[in-house]
Design a protein that fits this description.
Layout (H helix, E strand, L loop, with lengths): L12 E3 L2 E3 L7 H4 L7 H19 L1 H45 L4 H52 L2 H6 L1
Antiparallel strand pairs: 1-2
Helix pairs in contact: 2-4, 3-4
Amino acid sequence: MASTPTPNEPTTKKAGSAKVAPKKAAPKAFAKTAPVESPGQIIAERYRDTAYEALVGRNGENVSAVMSAGEAVLAGMAEVSQEMMTFAGDRLRQDMEVAEDFARSKSPEELFEKQCSFAQRAAEQYAAETSKLIAMFARIQQSCWAPVRERTKETLHGLNGEEEEAGK
């Protein structure tokens, strides 16, 4: 029965009938020296550490940028909602007023003129409101991307070492 060698016992390996001597440990003077790295390995290591720090190490800043973007979207959507409710309320009020005006018409021709005028005004108001909402959505879109864009710029500048140069 073969016993398991202890760390201090030399091990032998049977290769056919020949025995192979164990490798000796490196002298202590050489054990502490680091392996020589190529310039490519050094650069890769530098960028790996920098990228890790910039992307993961500052995760709180990244989360904060995303949260700011979310807040901008929510605030913008609340503004859009308020605008749409105001417009709908105004339109409803005008529709009720015009219905009374239609009822006071003296002839079919007068009613037709009132209806045409009402339809034209309503179409103009809807077109103006649509333009206003499109402008609001464009502004909201810009404001929600701003924190993410700024955080991304900071991260990229950090990866390129510009943060260190700016501090000097």
